[in-house]
Amino acid sequence: MQAFEASARYLSFTRAGQELHLSTSAVSRQISQLETFLGRRLFVREHNALRLTPAGETYAVDVRRMLELCTSVTSSLMARVVKSRLTVSCTAGVSTLWLAPRIGSFIDANPDVDLRIIVRDHFGVVSPAEYDVGVFYLRNAEVPGTHTHKLFDEEVFPVCSPAYANGRQLTPDELLSSTLLVLEDAERSWMSWHSWFERVGLERPTLNQTIIVNSYPLIVQLATHGKGVALGWNGVIDPLLEHGSLVRASDAHATMGGAYHITWPSERAETSAARRFRKWATAQAKGV
């Protein structure tokens, strides 16, 4: 059931296997055994693609609901014995740049909390059953089945190493001639360089020289080593600005109206540890 649910969610045996720590062939074999048992095809296997059959789509909804219920009642039972277990979910960028420099103060103040951190590409792939509280960028705070509390609004601006721009503040036109570090992100919830340039007044910009990376923490590392200019999100990038590893490359900034939020499932009782984390994260966002 877990192999099927993960495969249906990702439409990929490979990614399902990565999540479940199984080989692609092992996942494929389990799906074949399940289809044989049910006497129905659940997936249509095409060249380099996978899609659900109508029966598979219906089955996926019911199986996901069943697994979430199983996880919820199990977690509820365990919480009666271990009330301080806490699972925090966030993206790689938030975990590396915002959470890691700060989490020590939460751990020191809450020695009874058994903390677990899981990293997900974006909020859309997080199952409510797998986390207690999260820190995610959301363009729309109205998420079914989820409570949200805004930490700080989005402000996006270019950043680079102190030596890269020789202390100058570059104009948007000058930035177009720089090496731009581009995030390759299928989710597209974060602002791209094209969107940023358009929001600061340059229509249909042509990016002359780019380095494309699918990991935001790696983009930030490349920027600190003087390999180009990256887009930085306030709050998330602030520790590196305060440390001096990065500086603003331009006075120009933009927003798509999104914000970073604390999130937690609305259909599950909130634990004391989750409430303490929310209070702590809110204070951190306010600079307390």
Describe the structure.
The protein is an alpha/beta fold. It folds into 3 domains: 2-78, Arc Repressor Mutant, subunit A (Orthogonal Bundle); 84-135 and 262-285, 3-Layer(aba) Sandwich (D-Maltodextrin-Binding Protein, domain 2); 156-248, D-Maltodextrin-Binding Protein, domain 2, CATH 3.40.190.10. The chain has 11 helices and 12 strands. The protein has helices at 2-10, 13-20, 24-38, 54-79, 92-99, 103-109, 172-175, 193-199, 216-224, 238-243, 272-285; strands spanning 43-46, 49-52, 85-90, 114-119, 133-138, 146-153, 156-160, 179-183, 209-213, 230-233, 247-248, 259-265. The chain has a 5-stranded mixed β-sheet. The protein has a 3-stranded antiparallel β-sheet with strand order 10-7-11. A two-stranded antiparallel sheet has the order 1-2. β1 and β2 (49-52) form a beta hairpin. α1 (2-10) packs across α2 (13-20), α1 packs across α4 (54-79) and α2 packs across α3. The termini are far apart. The model has no long low-confidence stretch (mean pLDDT 89).
